[in-house]
Amino acid sequence: MASGMDANDISWKFHYTFADATRLQCRYNSGSVIEIPKLTISAAIDILAVAVVIYQLLQIIRGTRAAHVLAGILTVVAAYEIALRTGLEALRSLLASLGPYTAIAIIVLFQSEIRRTLARLGRKRLFGGYRRPESTDEILLALSSLANDSTGALIVLERDIGLRTFIESGVRLDSQISRDLLLSIFRQGTALHDGAVIVQKDRLAAAACFLPLSVNPQVSSKLGTRHRAGIGITEETDCLSLIVSEETGLISVAAFGEIETGLTIERVDERISLHFEVGGKKTLSGRNVSTPPSATGKPLATGKEDAVRTGRARD
After folding, report:
1. What 3-state class would DSSP assign to 90?
2. How many CB atoms neighbour CB 121 within 10 A?
3. What confidence tens digit (pLDDT) does each residue in 270-283 have?
4. What is the mean pLDDT of the chain?
5. Cα–Cα distance measured from residue 253 to residue 269, given in angstroms and rounded to the nearest whole number
6. Residues 77, 203: one domain?
């Protein structure tokens, strides 16, 4: 209440509804009314839902280029409000003319974030869970040999979102997965060793596939193109990327735009089971798999990584 205002200028009225709810109404002599509505359960749920949506949107764009674009849009909105309140008619008219194109601009600027959000919303199945790939044992055996020999590799396991677009960019194989086949593909000097292998429905769908590189500025600059490609494909789909560094022999796993490096074979097996939401810990069918001596389970990667065939070469 402003200082110097006569108490008689304001009259307080309490209105009791038929539901015995109270609402406070403040009426000025000028006839203006300020109402303080009652906080109902539905209103509280509504506020909570809006807060959750805003929080999720901020989580999606945090650390991406979209965050800077959103900051620019908010700056334009703030400038429009200032022009409207201060009577800067020319500036207000200019900014108002941009209004009809705002929706199209948002779709164009945030297309990757919108696609990723919709994909995440639809990745959960309503009935049942996912099935652990039957070829996991063969993949783990191949990873162990590749890591021991410091042979670079990138294996992508499809989950619910299809990878057909990326499969068509490589060489179609549609073959049964085996340790020997994976080792042959990633052997240095072969025609298919550059690029990614995509596993689809327990079949080796394609090799030498092109993958999108991650543009997340939070990704360490020490990670090379192979690791960035492994992260990039998980930013757009719900797949799991298994990466072996050609320089250090460390095994990394990427999922949902995040990467964990320096893993043991046991930890990789656990990550696969967790990603496909398989209950209980799976074993390697009694087969001996040696753990790479360099695998330490640390979450940070070091060293300049090798390039992979993704449409961009690295110096």
Report:
1. helix
2. 9
3. 999 888 876 544 44
4. 75
5. 10
6. no
* CA dist., res. 245 & res. 143, Å (int): 11
SS3 category, 105 = helix
Structural domain includes residue 173: yes
Is position 298 within any domain?
no
pLDDT band at 62 (very low <50, low <70, confident <90, very high): low
Number of domains in the chain: 3
Is residue 162 located within the same domain as residue 97?
no
Backbone angles phi, psi at 225, to 5 degrees: -65, -35
Residue among 72, 71, 96 at smallest CA distance from 84: 96
Shared-domain flag, residues 204 and 143: yes
- 263 with 143, same domain? yes
34 confidence band (pLDDT: 50, 70, 90): low
Model's pTM, two decimal places? 0.57
Q: Which residue has the higher pLDDT, 192 or 110?
A: 192
Question: Do 100 and 189 fall into the same domain?
Answer: no
Q: Which amino acid is at 172?
A: R
Taking the C-alpha atoms of residue 142 and residue 300, their distance in angstroms, rounded to an integer, is 23
Task: Report residue 130 as tokens.
Answer: 């996912």
Number of H helices, E strands in the chain: 10, 10
Phi, psi of 204 (to 5 degrees): -80, 100
Quick one: tokens of 112?
């990757």
Amino acid symbol at 189? G
- Does residue 158 share a domain with residue 183? yes
52 and 177 in a common domain: no
Neighbouring-strand partners of residue 242: 155, 253
Q: Which of 107-121, 173-187, 246-260 has the lowest mean pLDDT?
A: 107-121
Give first-to-last CA distance, the chain, whole Å.
Answer: 67
CB atoms within 10 A of CB 157: 23
Please indicate, yes or no, if residue 300 is contained in any of the structural domains: no
Contacts of 177 (CB under 8 A, 6+ apart): 135, 138, 139, 199, 202, 203, 204
CA–CA gap between residue 173 and residue 207 (Å, rounded): 7
Contact 252, 259 (CB under 8 A): yes
